[in-house]
Write a structure and sequence with these properties.
The complex is a heterodimer of chains A (265) and B (264).
Chain A lengths: L1 H20 L1 H26 L9 H18 L3 H10 L2 H7 L4 H31 L7 H26 L8 H15 L11 H9 L2 H4 L1 H7 L5 H37 L1
Helix pairs in contact in A: 1-6, 2-3, 2-6, 3-6, 3-11, 4-7, 7-12
Chain B lengths: L1 H17 L1 H28 L3 E2 L2 E2 H18 L4 H10 L1 H7 L4 H31 L7 H26 L9 H14 L11 H9 L2 H4 L1 H7 L5 H37 L1
Antiparallel strand pairs in B: 1-2
Classes of the chains: A mainly alpha (265), B mainly alpha (264).
Amino acid sequence: MQRLIDIYQQQFKVNLAVQFQYRVGMAIWMIEVILQPTIYLVVWSAAAGGGEVGGFGAREFAAYYIALLVVIHATQTWNMWEMEWLIREGQMSARLLRPLHPIHVDIVQNMSYKTLMLFVVVPAVLLLSAIFNPIFNPPLWALALMPLVLFLAAAMMFIIGWVTALAAFWTTRILAINSLFYLIVLFFSGQIAPLNLLPAPLQAVATLLPFRWGMAFPVELFLGRLSPEQALTGIIMQVFWLGVCLSVLSTIWRAGVKRYGAVGG
Amino acid sequence: MLDIYRAQFQVSVATYVQYRVGVLIWAAARLVEPVVYIMVWSSTAAALGGDVGGYDRGKITAYFIAMMIANQLTFAKMLWRYELRIQHGVLSYQLLHPVHVFHRDIADNLASKALQFIFVITSALMMTLLFQPDFDTPLWAVLAFPAAIIIAWMLNMVIDYLVAMSAFWFTRTNAIDLLFYLVLFFFSGRLAPLDLLPDVVQLLATALPFRWILAFPAELMIGQLTPAETALGFAMQALWITIGAVGLRLAWRSGVRHYSAVGG
């Protein structure tokens, strides 16, 4: 365990240095992280006008999307965009030879990137809060649960992203798969609209899928919109999905590596 | 030239038939999007007492069906192609062909549209039966629509190519691709009819090219536009195609020079 922590520390430093080199890419991601929730915020505030939609007025929408910005940042993964390249270019071979599972490299990369981006996310949140006047109303118990819920959400979304990325072992149509995945997350995680604005059938689908528990759930908790029972359900769903995804991951990973060795060797 | 197009078209169709799964996934993505928007905005309209920004349920449905068709007929998606070509150096020998590499892309784009169009027509018909859209299109608008959509396709190709040229300077373009998608998404009216947005955003959307690629043909198709607004639409399309084409010419030239300098 101590060895793993040492490796993480080293990788973390290396990653910070590497990502600092890719300033342009970072600047673009940064614009995106801020722009996307702002867009929805603008659209929904305008749509609500002076009134309310599904219990959301303009200031509630502001709170929702500002909290969502933070949650999106905390749960972001991008491995499915990189895996294809790693496999195609044979970079995966080198990673497989290391004594450590390749996922650890990505975990550290993910954490170091998110740490760096805090310098962007925090000012963005303050700025948007100053402009849009959000109403946050979380009870104390919800605040206390936030770190756990965010951690579970990030872990779950990361593993889902990795499972999706593994499709690159089997197909070259990664762009299509990633785009569809992106759309599904967009709709069923509560990004397009708070989920209680969706018609009942779509809400039911969202409840069955994991994405709601990775995004909408932490947001609603932070807004003070959930009862303790609902919060408990959310945490159970997060743990459930994390378990499911981890077991899928270990199964697929083995099959994928076998296939990779056979074809790309 | 026509023979070249025909040959490339046939090759592309054959290739896409081989990649059936990819084509199907794209078709599914294009169908999921309007269905969800119709549901989201219809329930919003209901919550607001019948209509949102002048759009009631029937209008919203018509708008997003029209948007799906416009989106399908105008999509370009060139960036990832150029990223791959440049990374792998495939562009080197494509540049040696006597025919400009753009022609290959255009023929390929048409082939992919031809195949996916079958899905789109089917989905549009299904959605029309299911959701009962409210089309209120005058005859002159029906006649103007083909011209609007063809020019919109040309405009989108030019703009998309401009973005794709960034692959000459950046080797990893996912971030740019997503950013472009997001801007297009918002300012083209794909997320919500532009009438619903605040005035400042509408003004910005009017000045930018994206509105004239998607929202304009879609609004024309559902009978939202007056003849004067339609004329403005065509004028803006022409203006942006001209600006885009000049920019593209410059970007292509300096891009190719940059490419040979680094990747040679």
